[in-house]
Amino acid sequence: MTSTPPAYILQLRARNIATAPLPPATPSPTPRLGSNDSPLEGDSGIDGNPPEGQNSDGNNQDLSNMGTGLQTGPSWSSMNDFGDSFMSGLQLLVRFTPEMARELKKLKGLSAESDLDYEAYAKATTVEEQHARNTLHVLEVRDLLRRLVNDSNEQYRVPPAVLKTSKEWASATLLSPSVYCYKGKKIAETVFNTMRAMGVSDLPSAQDTGRCDMVLEIIRTQITQGRYNLKEKIALSLYNKDGSEKKNRWDIGTLVKKCIGESRAPAIVGTYIRFAWLRSIWLELHLSAGQEQPNNEQSATPVNEQDEQNDDARPSKRPRTEATTDFWDVVDVRLESMRQHLTAPGELQATFKNIYDNDVVLYGNPKGSVKKVQELESWLGKLHEQTAGNMS
Question: From its phi and psi, is residue 9 left (phi > 0), alpha (psi between -120 and 50) or beta?
């Protein structure tokens, strides 16, 4: 049973119908199963050996000793049983004594403290006491290893190259036209795993969880700051910092250029289309807030930077529904809704393109050049591919 599309989707569809018809759906051919796809039936002895219980002439043979009780030789199992019994008998005759333990200890060079511990272990009168001493030593070693790991992590510093690459890749993720969401819990992990898959050097190993967490925290911080910066640039493309309307509003090319800044991720056509869509949502929320509170002057500047950076630290700040007024929450909810409902062939792409065309009408043709997707560096192509998956 399909769910009823939300009002936002119905508005987008109405706008699409008013501008251009959707391309017809092209049925895809149904794959056919070949006649040779069935598995082989039975075991006909095609390996060249006769089935078990038959000789080479095809006659049945008795695999036992024909009832004579004779054997061609001793079986390994019986020899092993004899050896185990013999050793058990020796253990009963010769008990491991403290003197034997001291002779054995001479083969190893122990410290004075370990020497005393070994003497106490050798003098233990019961197996339970020996097990207890073993357990204590194992736990002591575990505690020492934990302290060593913690001390190592405290002294660890993320290499400058890894620090720079982590920030660059995190920023490029937010600029990707195919990014699945902007506030998903797995964005940092996706970026980090893509860095490892692309062979970024000096990354900590997967077993060094403490050091990996340090790199992940750098990525998370950069993504949070990046969201704040993008929202600020989108607001400044239409309004001044004092809340007044900007006389010369930025075209989408100028907006994208300012959002990219010094990032290594160049603009492509999809970047223009995605940011035109982001700007349309920001303007809708801004105007809606002005209608709800007409007596209060509405500022175009984003929320306090510290609040934005601490946004991810709040586990259940608000539900991710259309009822929220948080810009990035609304963006993620609508992205998910569009993927869920605009499923006809070409419908989602046509919807984004329609919003972009409307942006060009309102704010002018984009200034600046774009690159083709084929011209992107390999790491950017891989990043676009990986961040297009579900990261919520």
Answer: alpha
Give Cβ neighbours of residue 324 (< 8 Å, ≥ 6 apart): 318, 330, 333
Give, for all 392 residues of the chain, the pLDDT tens digit: 567 788 888 888 777 776 655 555 555 555 454 444 443 344 444 444 544 555 545 455 444 444 444 444 445 455 455 555 555 555 545 566 767 777 777 777 778 888 788 777 777 778 888 788 788 778 878 877 777 766 666 678 899 999 999 999 999 999 999 999 999 889 999 999 999 999 999 999 998 888 899 999 999 999 999 999 999 999 999 999 999 999 999 999 999 999 999 999 999 999 999 999 999 999 999 999 875 443 333 333 333 444 444 444 333 343 344 555 799 999 999 999 999 999 999 999 999 999 999 999 999 999 878 898 889 999 999 999 999 887 87
| Residue 368 CB contacts under 8 Å (≥ 6 apart), including other chains | 253, 254, 256, 257, 267
Residue 280, exposed/middle/buried by CB under 10 A (0-12, 13-18, 19+)?
Answer: middle
Beta-bridge mates of residue 239: 245
| Positive/negative CA dihedral, 193, 199, 200, 203 | positive
CA angle 6, 10, 16 (to 5 degrees): 145
Domain boundaries, the chain: 95-155, 160-387
**Tokens, residue 57:** 């002439």
Tokens at 250, concatenated: 């930025």
Cα distance between residue 62 and residue 249, in whole Å: 96
Q: Are 51 and 57 in contact (CB under 8 A)?
A: no
Instruction: Report yes or no: 273 and 177 within 8 Å, Cβ to Cβ.
Output: yes
Are 266 and 376 a contacting pair, CB within 8 Å? yes
Residue type, 51: P
Taking the whole predicted model, whether its pTM rises above 0.85 is answered as: no
Question: What burial letters (b/e) apply to 185-222, b meaning 16+ CB within 10 Å?
Answer: eebbebbbebbeeeebeebbeeebeebbebbbebbbbb
